[in-house]
Each structure stands twice: as structure tokens, then as C-alpha cells.
Amino acid sequence: MNLLVVGxxxxxxxxxxxxxxxxxxxxxxxxxxxxxxxxxxxEALVLSTCNRVEVYxxxxxxxxxxxxxxxxxxxxxxxxxADLAPHLYVNYDSDxxxxxxxxxxxxxxxxxxxxxxLGQLRDAYAVAxxxxxxxxxxxxxxxQALRVGKxxxxxxxxxxxxxxxxxxxxxxxxxxxxxxxxxxxxxxAPADALVIGAGAMGALALATLRRAGARHxxxxxxGAARAQRLAANYDAEAVPFDELASALAKVDxxxxxxxxxxxxxxxxxxxxxxxxxxxxxxxxxxLAVPRDVAPGVGDLPGVILVDMERIGLAADExxxxxxxxxxxxGDVVLPExxxxxxxxxxxxxxxxxxVTDEVEAFRNWQRSSDVAPxxxxxxARADEVVTAELGRLRQRRPDLTDEQRDDxxxxxxxxxxxxxxLPSVRVRQLAAEPxxxxxxxxxxxLFDLEIPQAIDPVGACGVDVPRSEES
Length: 471
What we know:
This protein is α/β, with parallel strands linked by helices. It has helices at 15-21, 28-36, 62-77, 81-84, 94-105, 116-130, 136-155, 165-178, 200-212, 224-233, 244-248, 271-274, 308-326, 345-370, 372-396, 402-431, 437-446, and strands at residues 2-9, 41-49, 52-59, 89-92, 192-196, 216-220, 237-239, 253-256, 282-286, 303-306. Helix content is 51%, strand content 12%. Mean pLDDT is 84; it is low at 322-341 and 453-462.
């Protein structure tokens, strides 16, 4: 089995396509079952966030696995595979490992260095484990990816600015209101805020708004008990979900972060606010995919809407600005890098170096593990030879007692095991090195070992999507 990652993100597709592909927590088990039903997919994990949907899989053939996963994703998106293919990025084998580690480290995020992806990856792994769709390869990959992400955050300052999708959205919204890059409310204009949704993103929004200096924060959620618990943790006030209209009438900012498949903020809910001629502009941050804000809300007078599409465009623009300042060679360090909403170049480089080291370590583990069937086959062949020879001894020397036969069998087995111990250990060590697969091949040839072969890694042709560089 080989690793294959197939995904769509804000870099390859617009929000409408991401909305059709987005998978809620209660839908992931069904999607995992659908993936495991495919011919070439042996393990699967689905990571669905506000700006990406990715399938991590162990497949028996590259093209066959790609075709299977592409078909499942196209079915979910309600389009043909040919229409979906231009938006997919594909990483295979070592590239898949590197992609997973970069994602966990926050290097592939819309907001570089954000730490929320670690929790999202951990949740995706927990679901795959609970439903037994993650086998040995994905268990090892995900556990190592989580460790790499923690190491990148611990050993570098990639997240020193505390960047997240929430801070990026808030910065964009406040700059629209006040004409300058800021992440906090001006002292002379304190704001009241409403957070709709009490999940992980809702909690992050509450913490961010509290740090930014929001005056009074309300929380609304369909599950009232959860909203009350979250409100208590952040000195906020829980409001009943059916009283959204009245809460909206008295706030200056609303953050939408639910998992609802349908919009929760509609123009009708803002009717009371529109009738108040003294109301200040309303800043709306829609952090949900699918979108929580209905079409038309952003066109209302006095409403400033910041959604995932606008955040993605701004992130790409800031990345371009940073690249222009740093230069092609990347030799100039920007101490003021945080002003662009990006970690300093040295921090990104340090995190990338950690990923490179960890990818090689994982590949060493893979190469060492791949030789295990050969070692097992060698020991099995030795056991067959010993058993056959002891059978011949029984026929030639029927006069031996059972105790004598046991002594002979024990001695022969011990001699064989001692002879095989050092070669077994050494071939595992050598196999872990680059090019080490040749040792397993030589061992199989020398002892004429038969190893059950998986389907050819290239396999049957399928979706015509090139393997990507880092997306």
C-alpha cells in the first residue's frame, strides 16, 4: 500500500465548489465507508475544514486509487470527474507525506502558521480510528504529522502572532471600517459582538474578540446548553437561537461559525436593524463553509461582509507582498513580517526544515517496514526446512524417545534462529536507508522467497490529474 492525498483547497477552487464538497462531522463516517468500498482504497481519512477537503488514503495502485477517490469526490460535489479534476491536487508516496506534515505545521494554511489545523487533523484521525478506516499506514502518518505540527510550533515562532482565520477576518473587517490594519477595536469605538455557533471556531472567535477588546459578547447556538457553557468560559452572554433578530439589532459585529448546511443569517433577521436609522455599520464575518450568510446580506446598506473567499484573496495578496519584499533568493529577513499577516521568513524556513527532516525519518520507517514481509518469509522458509528434516529424522530413528526428539528439535530451532537473527536485524537497518529496498530484493532472490505482491503501484488508469507540487 502507498500513500495518496487527493484534495481541493482555497488555492485550487472557489468557495462554491468547497461548499459542495464540505463534509460535516456527522457525514464523515458515511464518506469514509464509501471510500473503503472502492477497489483500490485500503485505508482512508477525511480532513474537511473551512478552506480544504482532503482525502488521505492507503491505495494499492496510484491511478486506480486516484480514479476511485476522484469519483467519490465528484459524486459529492454533484459534478463529473472531468469537471472536478482541474481543481484537484494530488500527492503520492513521499510527496503525500510531505504534504501531510506541512498541513499539520500550518505551512499550507490560508493563514500561515495557524494552529487550529492540528485540532482539526486530530478530530479527523479520531473519526477514522473510531470507524476502523485508518490502518497501520495512516495511523503512523497521522500520529507523526501531529507530532511534526507540535514540533514546528514549539521549536519555531511560526505562530508567534497568534494568527488564525478569525484574526485575519477581523483584521480585514476593521480595516474596512477604520482604514488601517488592526486586530483590535479602537478605544474610542468599543463594539458589541455576537458569535453564532459554539463549536471550535466559535470558541476561537470568542477568545479573539475578547483579546481584541470587544465590550459585550453574545453567543447563540442551536444547542442552548453548549452556548451557555461557552459563554461562561469567556465572560459572554448566551442568547436563545430563536432570538437572533433581537441580538443582531444591538451588536456591531457578528461572527458566523456553524456547521449548518443552510444559511443562518438572512436579510429578514436584520429587518429590525435596518429600520434603526441610528444603527452603526454591521461587520459580518462568515467563517463557515458552507456559508452561514445568505445571499443578499452583504448588499444591505451598512453591512460589511467578510467571508472565506475574501479572506483567501487577501491571504494570497499578502503572500505576494511578502515575496516581493523578501526577493526571489529569500535572503532578506523581514522583522516586520507580522505586519503583513505572515510569520517571519526565518520561521517559515525553520518549519520547512523540520518537515524535511521528518519526511526522511518517516520514509526510513516505511522502508524498514516494507522489508518485514521478506524477513517473515525467510523465517517461515527456515521453519519449513526444520519441520521437514525433523520428520525425516523420525522416520530414520524410530528408536528415539519423545524426550530425545524434543531435545533435538529444540537444538535445531535454536541454531536456525541464532543464524537468522543477525541477517534479520541488519536487513531491517539497511532497508531503512535510501535505496535500501535492494537488500530485500536480494534476500528474496537468494532464498527464492515468494512474497504476495500488491497490485502494481501504477496500476489501472483513471482520473488524469498530474501529481502536484506543494499546493
